[in-house]
Amino acid sequence: MQKILVPLFGVIILVCMLMPRLNAQPTTQDTIRIAFNEFVDMAMDYSANLDARRKNVNLAENRVHQARANRLLPNLNLTTAHGLVPGVKSMNPNITPGQYYLDPHLENDWENWGIFTQAEISGIQPVYTWGAISNLINAAQKGADAARYELDADKDSFILQLFELYQSALLVNELERLMNQALSQLDEAEKELEKLRDEGDPALEEKDVFEFYIFKAEFQALVTEVEETRDFVTRSWDLVLASGPDRRYLPAERFFDPLPVTLQDFGYYENTAMHSRAELKGLNAAREAAGYGASAARSQYYPSMVLGLSAGFGYTPNRPRQNNPFIRNNTNFLSARIGFGFQQNLNFWQIRNRVERSEIQKRQIDDFHDAASDGIRIELGERYREARIAMSKRQSKENALRISNEWLRTEQIEFDIGFGDINNLVDAVKKKMELEVEVTQLTFDLNVKMAKLYRSAGIPLQQLLPAED
């Protein structure tokens, strides 16, 4: 009998991507059935890898806010100074404190100390920058879009792994049902063989009995493999859902059937992939970001108009303010200025290098986009071929199973009325068991192959499943 092959479906990757939390350990266990969408939502809540990708999106959005902050007073500085300074004194009684600057013999008064406080604020407001600021904002926004598409691509890959895990649970449940049914049928066949053996039926040969027991022994190994696979899938579910001993999750579906989808022609999936794959959308966004970055760099070739403003004051109680507007006492003053001006980066070699770098990045992303498009088409062709083969194999085995059921019914009827051959009946039972297992495995294979085809085409896997009631 063919061995049961349940793929490991990347559980090691899931271990790296998930960060399960610890739960309390109550004495009872609840069984909860969840649909695939619920399964995905719960698993994503515990994915450390997706959390890291979300933080990349947050960082990209932060760069957008930084770029937008350049619109309003990007250069605004405040400087303060504090200390102790001596006062001043004049020996000329005809000079008032507000005219001390007229005394050439003015001296420091070392016996009169005061606290010196000074503050100056300056800022530059861009007025016209030849599109530099708007291009920087657009470049940052497209960079954030690229980060979001990268997150979407990781989500799509993660959902595919979860789909395979969910289908594995359905497969194991169906195989357990088939194993229990087969064991019951084997027990009945064994009783009939032993009965005929005791009665000395001449049509029964010893080699037929030995072949039956060899088959039953091999089948028991198959049962053990199913049990071990069931435990493996259960542990994987516990890991993905971070479930503890207080609850056990099971698929909401109680029957394992092929997905209710129709395989379209290849052109449909190719056209959908070129417009829907998150990887291509991310590269398109990155290419636009590089284009905006190049435009922002070119704008530095031209002078930008700015509005400058500054204000300051200084106060020291033992240093009088001077009354002449052309004379400034740096320890006791008040001033404010505002006006228009121009800023120009004169390092044109540096500007040219920045423009060239942005253009190279844009061309590089174009190459990545072309390579990714070709890779997706190749991947899609392979997935389409695998899905068609899986569908054909399952259809053939399902037809064979239907014929096997007819054979078994015929042998059973003939045996019941006394004209049948026990060897033919056992052979019919054995063939039906083998085909049931193969059809179940091929159902799993077909569902997973269709899911991989949908992933390659950029179609949400939720569209594979029937609508929930």
- What would CATH call the class? Mainly Alpha
Number of helices: 9
Give the C-alpha Rg: 40 Å
- End-to-end Cα distance, whole Å, is 39 Å
Description:
- The protein is an alpha+beta fold.
- The protein has one domain: Outer membrane efflux proteins (OEP) (Up-down Bundle), CATH 1.20.1600.10.
- It is about 60% helix and about 15% strand.
- It is built from nine helices and six strands, in the order H-E-H-H-E-E-H-H-E-H-H-E-E-H-H.
- It has helices at about 10-15, 35-45, 50-70, 130-200, 205-240, 265-275, 280-300, 350-415, 420-455; strands spanning about 30-35, 75-90, 105-130, 245-250, 305-315, 335-345.
- It has a four-stranded antiparallel sheet with strand order 2-3-5-6, with no helix packed on it. The chain has a two-stranded parallel sheet with strand order 1-4.
- It is elongated and about 150 Å long.
- About 25% of the residues are buried.
- The model is unreliable at about 1-25 (pLDDT under 50).
Task: Give keywords.
Outer membrane efflux proteins (OEP); two-stranded parallel sheet; four-stranded antiparallel sheet; single chain; disordered N terminus; alpha+beta; 6 strands; 469 residues
Short description:
This protein is of the alpha+beta class. Helices cover 59% and strands 15% of the residues. It is built from nine helices and six strands, in the order αβααββααβααββαα.
Topology, please?
Blueprint (H helix, E strand, L loop, with lengths): L10 H7 L12 E5 L1 H10 L2 H21 L6 E15 L17 E22 L3 H68 L6 H36 L5 E5 L14 H11 L1 H21 L5 E12 L17 E11 L4 H69 L5 H36 L12
Parallel strand pairs: 1-4
Antiparallel strand pairs: 2-3, 3-5, 5-6
